[in-house]
Design a protein that fits this description.
The complex is a heterodimer of chains A (650) and B (125).
Chain A: H1 2-31, H2 37-43, H3 50-61, H4 69-77, H5 81-84, H6 91-97, H7 100-110, H8 115-123, H9 126-159, H10 163-175, H11 180-183, H12 188-238, H13 242-251, E1 256-257, E2 264-269, E3 277-279, E4 284-287, E5 297-301, E6 305-307, E7 313-317, E8 319-321, H14 325-333, E9 344-350, H15 383-398, H16 401-407, H17 413-444, H18 455-466, H19 472-508, H20 514-535, H21 543-567, H22 573-597, H23 612-630, H24 636-643, E10 644-646
Antiparallel strand pairs in A: 1-8, 2-7, 2-9, 3-6, 4-5, 5-8
Helix pairs in contact in A: 1-12, 1-18, 1-19, 2-12, 3-12, 3-16, 3-17, 3-19, 4-17, 6-15, 6-17, 7-8, 8-9, 9-12, 9-19, 9-20, 9-21, 10-12, 12-17, 12-18, 12-19, 12-20, 13-17, 15-21, 18-19, 19-20, 21-22, 21-23, 22-23
Chain B: E1 12-14, H1 16-47, E2 59-60, E3 63-64, H2 65-89, H3 102-119
Antiparallel strand pairs in B: 2-3
Helix pairs in contact in B: 1-2
Classes of the chains: A alpha+beta (650), B mainly alpha (125).
């Protein structure tokens, strides 16, 4: 099977990759010796040039989701994902240009190193600084755990099927059998990936600081764009051209799927087997058409099942059924290279249709809006949600502290100007091509809906094997791994800087020596990383939902105070607090209301059909404005410091 | 430690970096609104249709036409605008030198001043 070659390539590329990351960390560590330690360790001495700044910004913003969740969504819902991601056309200029220049200037003028630093200095309010740091630690800690899990899952997907990996995982399982926390992990494979991934990230981040993170981000950014550039022509040509892909997609109808709790199909073997028969996930099963219909039956197993020795029947096998004739014929036409279960009869078919996308009026669901959806009868992306996502990427991206820190680190305005252009071209080369590539995946690899999270590695292996260059898959599958790694290291440094700089140095011991701060910085990064990794051994459920909650919550809390602080002379500390508390609490309230109204915290209440991020931002800006107007203006001294210069200087 | 004495407004002028950044921020916000008003309504009116005939789905360069004119084309336009804006419109302002450690030094000074006030009574450090 081709999977084995691709996975070995993944292992090799992973090892080369990790080695390169450590070389970069060692080089960064040498920089730490000569300059102001904290500013270098957490902010790279504000000296980032165009490539470093552009790629660290781009790579941090595109988390692991860009190469796992996003391809999976394109595959599942079709062309509508172009609209879902559409606001990325203005994301670079919005997230970098809107506050970049001014934030960098204010941070220089005050000597701020972290985002809470800027807020505290700009408003001359330790209380506001403490609020900012509490929110960052609260939100980002959840996010860090979630990203650790995401990274491990990606690595696990990539390494699946590699013999060395499987045997090491088994060895690890027996080694940790007696250790309380570690032995309770989801699976030995997950634990192994978590430890390898976690230890690598923690070590290089701790040792090298900000520059290590930035340089590895640059490398990761290059890997990501190379992956896409190589895959695009391969995908289009193998799918028979883009025109052909779209025409085929127009004819597609969504698969029928078995509900997780009950239903499925009954399989009956023509004769009993002497050994246990294991039916793996991804196995194809076919049978004659139902009388009166022309389309042959074709199912793909979505959860592995076992038929005991001597038995012939198994009930409720979880599958999905292909419903598009062209797809079925394509799979049956390459029966030799696919894994089929032969000599078997199918009966008791109990499968569910998609909530949107199958009825006669919804033809062409994969090439039109709102896109097919298994669960929502309004489709995947109704109008109001399309607007929410336009807000989500461009506006909420501007409000992310991890992005803001980077805006404090570039060298000069020229660097910012060129970097925005670089990121704009970079995103254009990644996001729209990804939509095309994974639309082609619908044609090339039908029936992957059950395991769509691993569509990226599967597609990489499929495309490269077809041109006889399996080794190339290694480079391609490194892209998602690079994406998640570059996000985790930034978050890790953000939290440790919050503890060291904002909590310890600014509130507990401002006169701590350089040596103490150095030791504490290493220690905090290491401890925060290790703690997050240990929590991720048994991570909370709903991780994707947590990531969404955290991202929008941070934007609702931070965007308005920072924008007001940079651009409005009249705003005062009370107004900034009003904006921060207003945004945070209204956003939280929509989620809590969702718990009572919709039965789950992660199905937030949607006022006027809008996502909580829009309502949260709206309230944050309004309350900041109202509180400022109702309270005394800030001192002249503060306003002059940040908004005026001496005439002689100009 | 501010840049000038608080009541000496004669010798001060509004920081041009602030003014330039603010003007640029308004334009960027405008660009976002234009992108939103172009993409979402266009896609909604042309791409959200029921009863689509699979054989006659309109394409441009192989992409469904509503995606091409609603997303791909404005994306290119936005890129061209971004490059023009950054390289030719955005002012190349001097961001000043970094006052590393100044905020901390200021707070330490304030802290000592308060301590001294509490013990000896208003002796400036």
């Amino acid at each position: 099977m081709f999977a084995a070659d691709g996975s070995d390539a993944a292992l090799v590329s992973f090892l080369i990759y990790t080695a390169a990351v450590f070389v970069l960390a060692a080089m960064s560590n040498r920089l730490l010796k000569s300059k102001s330690f904290l500013s270098e360790y957490f902010l790279g001495s504000r000296g980032l040039g165009v490539w470093a700044f552009a790629l660290t910004f781009a790579a941090t913003s595109s988390s692991g989701g860009s190469f796992t969740g996003f391809p999976s969504k394109i595959y599942t819902h079709g062309w509508i994902l172009a609209l879902w991601i559409g606001s990325y056309m203005v994301v670079p200029i919005c997230t970098m240009g809107f506050i970049g220049k001014r934030l960098n200037q204010v941070a220089r003028r005050s000597g701020s190193i972290t985002v809470p630093d800027v807020i505290r200095d700009r408003f001359h309010s330790p209380l506001l600084g403490l609020m900012a740091v509490s929110l960052i630690v609260f939100f980002m800690s959840f996010n860090l755990v979630a990203q650790f899990k995401a990274g491990s899952l990606i690595l696990q997907t990539l390494l699946e099927g590699v013999t060395l990996f499987e045997s090491t995982a088994d060895g690890l399982a027996s080694a940790v059998a007696g250790i309380p926390l570690l032995s309770s992990a989801e699976s030995p494979e997950y634990l192994l990936c978590l430890l390898v991934f976690g230890v690598a990230v923690i070590l290089y981040t701790t040792y090298g600081g900000f520059h290590a993170v930035v340089w590895t981000d640059v490398m990761q950014g290059v890997v990501m764009v190379l992956g896409v550039i190589i895959m695009l022509p391969l995908a289009i040509s193998q799918a028979g051209g883009l025109e052909n892909t779209t025409k085929l997609m127009a004819k597609m109808t969504p698969p029928r799927v078995s509900a997780p709790d009950k239903g499925g199909i009954t399989l009956t073997l023509n004769k009993p087997r002497e050994e246990i028969l294991r039916i793996d996930t991804g196995t194809w099963i076919t049978d004659e058409p139902i009388p009166g219909q022309k389309v042959p039956l074709l199912f793909r197993v979505t959860k592995s099942a076992i038929i005991p020795a001597g038995k012939t029947t198994i009930n409720e096998v979880k599958v999905l059924q292909l419903t598009t004739l062209e797809d079925i014929q394509r799979i049956l036409g390459r029966k030799e290279s696919e894994k089929f279960l032969d000599d078997v009869k199918v009966s008791n078919i109990d499968l569910k249709a998609y909530a949107y996308g199958e009825s006669g009026t919804q033809q062409g669901a994969y090439v039109s809006g709102p896109g097919p959806s298994p669960s929502s009868s309004n489709g995947f992306l109704p109008f109001s949600l399309a607007i929410s996502f336009f807000f989500m990427w461009a506006i909420s991206g501007t409000g992310q502290p991890a992005n803001m820190v980077r805006l404090m680190a570039f060298r000069d305005t020229k660097t910012l100007q060129r970097s925005i252009c670089t990121v704009a071209i970079y995103y254009t080369m990644i996001y729209f091509p990804l939509v095309i590539i994974f639309c082609c995946a619908r044609v090339l690899l039908p029936g992957m809906e059950g395991e769509s999270d691993s569509i990226m590695p599967k597609m990489a292996v499929f495309l490269t094997e077809n041109i006889g260059m399996g080794w190339l898959a290694g480079l391609l599958v490194a892209a998602p791994f690079a994406a998640v790694m570059s996000t985790v290291d930034s978050f890790l440094l953000l939290i440790s800087s919050a503890w060291v700089r904002d909590v310890y140095q600014r509130n507990i011991n401002p006169e701590a020596s350089e040596k103490t701060m150095k030791l504490l910085s290493y220690l905090a990064t290491f401890v925060v990383g290790t703690a997050a990794m240990l929590v991720a051994v048994n991570p909370p459920q709903f991780l994707q939902d947590i990531i969404v909650y955290v991202g929008s919550g941070l934007a609702a809390s931070f965007l308005a105070p920072v924008v007001y602080g940079l651009y409005w002379r009249r705003v005062n500390a009370a107004g900034a607090m009003g904006a921060m508390i207003g945004g945070f609490s209204v956003h939280l309230a929509m989620y809590v209301t969702g718990y009572f109204v919709n039965g789950s915290f992660f199905k937030p209440y949607q006022l006027f059909n809008f996502d909580p991020i829009i309502i949260g931002l709206f309230v944050s800006f309004i309350s900041g404005f109202v509180v400022t107007k109702l309270t005394a203006p800030p001192s002249d001294e503060l306003v002059q410091k940040y908004f005026y210069i001496n005439k002689a200087n100009s | 430690m501010s840049t000038a004495p608080s009541n000496d407004t004669e010798s001060m002028e509004v920081d041009p970096v602030f003014l330039n950044s603010k003007r640029e921020a308004w334009i960027i916000l405008g660009l976002w609104v234009v992108a939103l008003l172009w993409s979402v309504p266009y896609c909604y009116m042309n791409g959200f249709q029921s009863g689509l005939n699979a054989e006659t789905v309109e394409t441009t360069l192989g992409i469904p036409s509503w995606v091409f004119w609603g997303i791909a084309f404005p994306w290119i336009v936005a890129d061209i605008f971004t490059i023009w804006f950054c390289l030719f419109y955005m002012k190349e302002d001097d961001l000043g030198v970094a006052h590393e450690g100044e905020d901390l030094a200021e707070e330490i000074a304030e802290m000592h001043a308060n301590e001294d006030e509490a013990t000896a009574g208003g002796n400036e450090s």
